[in-house]
Each structure stands twice: as structure tokens, then as C-alpha cells.
Design goal:
Oligomer: single chain
Number of helices: 29
Distance between the termini: 109 Å
Helix content: over 70%
Number of strands: 0
Low-confidence stretches: 1-22, 331-353
Largest sheet: none
Strand content: under 5%
Mean pLDDT: 79
Structural class: mainly alpha
Radius of gyration: 32 Å
Order of helices and strands: HHHHHHHHHHHHHHHHHHHHHHHHHHHHH
Length: 582
């Protein structure tokens, strides 16, 4: 009996060690986890080699291997194309797996659905990841979660919410000492302020990101931040500073930022008159840019070919540009459909897998319910498709009308008259030198241009008379008196004031409101009031006082109205010209 006890003791020790070691993972997986962030390609190779061994391992090891495979692919900028793998991983860690890995599983589920273009689902998982985080110990992951959440809000144009998320991400990354995360957060905050047209704040955060990246010798991050600085300097038309940023960004260019740098380089060289350099980068974008960059590059190259009288090349680039625009429209339509879902009700989404397990005895009823639901969805989908088609046709009609208004305004401009006068002078020279056979054609061309000039001058004279009448109206004088008042509170206009302004404009420029609503029927009250003040000839700074808004808000609203109508970016002065022409 004594000998039996002595022999049993080592066996019990071994069994105890095995029981304690059930939570450990193979060293090869731990090594792959450590490589995923710094050398993701090496981690992917390592995980691929161990895939056969993982197939015979316990479930906890298999699931950990799958999670690391998704993580390494994500770090290597490999786009996720399916959610089948991550769904199994999330289900395992929710039910049986190591709960310390659950926040990471939720995070990469969010990354997968972001790549798949499902913003509500991605936000759902990022929210769950944030809720599953421990109070301490995973600050780096917390920074990534809030950074990704901020990015999703940013691309939904929810800039204030995006700023809040980026600030949280930055706080966690500072606590974790994650320099790379801090640089990205500062860059993102600068980018958001840039979209809010707060360029001073944008420059402060981008400069801070640049100093941090430079101080720690992070070459790739320096290139990334320089690209953002370059974009801001281009917007501010500070081309010398932009060129300095471009040179430094190119020194450490990463494949993920190549398309953006090439695009900004082509813009810089085009703006500064170095066409050959701009053409070089447009051609590079055609080969390696995003679909948006390719569209821009093809269109620019087509214009260059037209100037060089190479019509075949111009036609080829125009065709490619149209193909890119078709692809962009498809992407935009898909995103518009997805944005119909509420981003804030994602916690209420049904968990179908859990319901199926709990309702096995009701499968027959479920089948008929699903069948009826599918029929209803098909009916709703059919009705929605018809609705989208009608809205698209209406949008196209409005866009065509807006372009006609712009063309007519350009043809009635003083610049059009001056250009015609120059052309008439050239024709007069040609008439003096032409033989009898060509004189008749030249005389007809000259008469046509003189007739166009007389028409344009008549319209311009009428426009001047209307503007002079606008300046001499009682309502204009009352507004000037209101603006001259010493107390800011006296400048706020009431509803009766706006009705009076509207009536005065309609009397001098009949049909103004109808024409404006034909351009775009859904202007807000603030935007409509700005259009009335523009037509009345009020300065932008005075518009801000009369509408109780900041001057920056007035500028942004005028730019936004131009984009709503013409479906592309324009300047506030472009919109003023359109309103004054109505």
C-alpha cells in the first residue's frame, strides 16, 4: 500500500499540471499574436503553416487560431470579403471561450463588417467590444475601438460624434503609451476639423501629430501626417508649404497612402503650372489609384489630350472616366440604402442564431412566418425600387435644369461679352484680309456674335436695373439701418421681416422663389433666408448678423447649397452668382 501511494503521487502531480494548463495556448500562436501588429505578413505565414495542426487541436486552440488569422489579415490591410469565419469565432467566445478574448473578437467582427460595407452592424460590434472591456488592462484595444467608431461616424458625416470618439481614443492611447495610435487620433481630429471648415484647429492637431511622429522617429507615420498636412495646405492654397510636405511624404510612402499622395501631387503640380509632372502622377493613378482617384485622373488626362489635339486619346480617357463614374454611382446608391437604417438602434437587432436554438419546436410556424415575411419584403422592395427610380429621375431633371441656369448665367455675363468682342475683332481682321468667297460666311458669323452681344448686354442692363432697384428698396434701407444699430440683439429678423423681404424680391424679380425651388425643393429655412439676402445684395458678414449665425456657418451653407444642386463641390461665390441670375 505504501509503495502504491508513492507511485500514485507523481501521477496526481502530472494530472494537476495538465488541469492547470488547459488555458494555455501553443507557443506558435502566442508568437503569431505578438507578430500581428508589427509584422503582419510574417504572422500570416506562420498561421498558414500551422493551419493543419490547428485542425486537430482542441476547440479553444482552433478558435484562437481563427481569431489570429482574422487579426493578421486585418493588420496586413487585406480586405475582408466574408463574415462566415468571424461569426463562428464570436459565437464561441460569447458562449464557452476565454472571456478575456471576447472584446477582441467583437472588435474584429466590427472590422469585418466595416470592410463589407455594413456600417450599422460594424457599430453594433464596436459598441459590444467597448462594453466587454475590463476596467483596466486593455487600453490599446480600447483606443482602436473608439478610433474605428469615430471613423464610421466620420464617413456618415456625423462630425461632432466623430470628434468625441477620436478624443476618447486619444485618451486611451495616451494612457497606454501607444504613439502610433496617438498620431492616428490627432490626424483624425485634424481631418474632422478640416471637414467642419475650422482650418485653424485642423492645423493645430495635424502639426501636433507631425511633431509626435517626428520625435519618435516613426517614418511611416511622418509620411501619413505629411499627406494630411499637404491636403490642408492645398485647401489653403499655400503651395510652397504643400511642396515641402509632398517631398517628405514621398520619402516614406506606404502602399496604403499611395493613391492619396499621387492625387495630391497631381493637384499641386497642376495648380502650379507644371503640367508634365501632373500628367505623370495622373498616369500613375490610372494604374494604382482608388476608383475616385482613377475617375479624376482619366478626366484630367482627357482634358490634356484635348488641349494637345489628340482626340483619340481624349476619347479613350473620357470613356474610362464615365466607366469609373458608373462604378462610383453604384457604390453611392448602395451606401444610400444602407444609411436608411438607424445607427443608434443597433442594440435592438435580433440574434437569429440564438432564437433558432430556443425555438426548435416551432420551426414549422417559423417557416410560414419567414415565407410571409419574404413575400412582404419583396413587395416592399419592389415599391422601394420604384420610389428610388422616381427620385433618381427627379434628381436628374433638377440637375439638368440647374446646369441650364448656370450656362445661361455664363452666356449673360460680362466676361462672355468681352470674349465675344475679342472674337468680333478677330473676324473684322479676317474680313479685311479674306477673299470674296469667304466674306459672306465671316459676315454671318460676325452678325451672329453681335446679336448675341446685344442680347447679353440687354440682359446685363436689366440685371443692373434690378440690382439698383433692390438697393433702393425700403426693405434694403431698413436692413442697413438695423445693421447699423449698436445692439446685436436688434439685428435678429422676425417672420414678418422675412415675408416682407420675400414680397419685395418677388415684385422686382418675379418667380424667384419658384425658380429656386425648381433647383432644389428641400432647402432649410436658414438656407432659404440666405438666398433671399443674397438676392437682395447683402454682404456675407451682414447675413451672419441678420440670421444669428456665425460667418463660417454662412459660408459653409452657401457652399453646401451649391453642392446639393450641382452634385459636386463649388464655392460660395459660385452659388451667389446662380441666385443673382434667377
Amino acid at each position: 500500500m505504501k509503495h502504491l501511494l508513492l507511485l500514485s503521487f507523481p501521477l496526481f502531480v502530472l494530472l494537476g499540471l495538465c488541469a492547470c494548463g488547459q488555458g494555455y495556448y501553443p507557443s506558435v500562436l502566442l508568437r503569431a499574436d505578438s507578430l500581428a501588429s508589427v509584422a503582419p505578413d510574417s504572422a500570416r505565414v506562420l498561421l498558414a503553416r500551422w493551419a493543419d495542426s490547428a485542425g486537430h487541436a482542441p476547440e479553444r486552440v482552433r478558435m484562437y487560431h481563427r481569431l489570429l488569422t482574422i487579426k493578421a489579415a486585418d493588420k496586413a490591410y487585406v480586405r475582408h470579403t466574408s463574415d462566415s469565419l468571424i461569426k463562428k469565432v464570436v459565437a464561441y467566445y460569447e458562449d464557452d471561450g476565454d472571456k478575456s478574448l471576447l472584446p477582441e473578437a467583437y472588435y474584429y467582427a466590427g472590422r469585418v463588417y466595416r470592410d463589407l460595407g455594413d456600417a450599422p452592424q460594424a457599430l453594433d460590434y464596436f459598441e459590444q467590444a467597448a462594453d466587454a472591456l475590463p476596467l483596466q488592462g486593455q487600453e490599446v484595444l480600447a483606443g482602436k475601438i473608439y478610433s474605428q467608431t469615430g471613423s464610421l461616424f466620420f464617413y456618415q458625416q456625423m462630425y461632432e460624434e466623430a470628434l468625441e470618439m477620436f478624443r476618447r481614443a486619444y485618451a486611451y492611447d495616451v494612457k497606454a503609451g501607444d504613439v502610433r495610435g496617438q498620431v492616428f487620433d490627432l490626424r483624425d481630429m485634424g481631418n474632422t476639423y478640416q471637414e467642419l471648415e475650422q482650418t485653424d484647429s485642423a492645423l493645430v492637431y495635424i502639426q501636433k501629430a507631425y511633431r509626435l511622429a517626428s520625435m519618435h522617429g516613426k517614418a511611416e507615420l511622418v509620411s501619413l501626417v505629411q499627406g494630411q498636412r499637404l491636403n490642408l495646405y492645398l485647401q489653403l492654397q499655400q503651395y510652397d508649404s504643400a511642396e515641402i510636405c509632398l517631398r517628405e511624404a514621398f520619402k516614406y510612402m506606404h502602399k496604403s497612402s499611395r493613391s492619396g499622395l499621387y492625387s495630391m501631387a497631381s493637384q499641386l503640380y497642376n495648380y502650379t503650372g507644371r503640367l508634365d509632372s501632373a500628367v505623370y502622377y495622373w498616369e500613375r493613378l490610372v494604374d494604382s489609384g482608388t476608383i475616385y482617384a482613377k475617375d479624376m485622373a482619366h478626366f484630367a488626362l482627357a482634358q490634356v489630350a484635348m488641349r494637345r489635339k489628340d482626340t483619340d486619346k481624349a476619347l479613350e480617357h473620357f470613356v474610362q472616366s464615365i466607366a469609373c463614374q458608373d462604378s462610383i454611382r453604384r457604390l453611392t446608391n448602395t451606401e444610400t440604402l444602407r444609411q436608411m437604417h438607424s445607427l443608434y438602434n443597433y442594440k435592438l437587432r435580433e440574434k437569429e442564431n440564438q432564437k433558432l436554438k430556443a425555438e426548435k419546436q416551432q420551426r414549422e410556424y417559423l417557416f410560414y412566418g419567414v415565407l410571409g415575411g419574404c413575400a412582404l419584403l419583396l413587395a416592399v422592395a419592389f415599391g422601394y425600387v420604384q420610389y428610388v427610380r422616381r427620385k433618381r429621375a427627379e434628381l436628374q431633371r433638377r440637375l439638368e435644369y440647374a446646369n441650364r441656369v448656370r450656362e445661361e448665367a455664363e452666356q449673360r455675363s460680362e466676361q462672355f461679352v468681352r470674349e465675344n468682342e475679342q472674337k468680333i475683332a478677330v473676324l473684322e481682321r479676317q474680313l479685311r484680309e479674306a477673299d470674296v468667297a469667304h466674306r459672306e460666311q465671316l459676315v454671318r458669323q460676325k452678325e451672329m456674335m453681335e446679336w448675341e452681344n446685344r442680347q447679353a448686354q440687354a440682359v446685363l442692363e436689366k440685371k443692373r436695373l434690378v440690382e439698383a432697384a433692390m438697393e433702393d428698396t425700403d426693405v434694403r434701407k431698413d436692413l442697413e439701418a438695423c445693421l447699423a444699430a449698436s445692439h446685436a440683439g436688434n439685428k435678429m429678423l422676425k417672420e414678418n421681416d422675412w415675408l416682407r423681404i420675400e414680397g419685395e424680391i418677388e415684385s422686382l424679380s418675379p418667380g424667384f422663389k419658384e425658380k429656386l425651388q425648381t433647383l432644389y425643393p428641400d432647402f432649410s429655412e436658414f438656407e432659404y433666408h440666405l438666398c433671399l439676402l443674397i438676392r437682395l445684395g447683402i454682404r456675407p458678414s451682414d447675413m451672419a448678423a441678420l440670421t444669428a449665425h456665425a460667418k463660417e456657418s454662412v459660408t459653409a451653407a452657401r457652399r453646401r447649397m451649391c453642392e446639393k444642386v450641382f452634385r459636386k463641390k463649388g464655392t460660395p461665390s459660385d452659388w451667389d452668382e446662380i441666385v443673382l441670375s434667377l
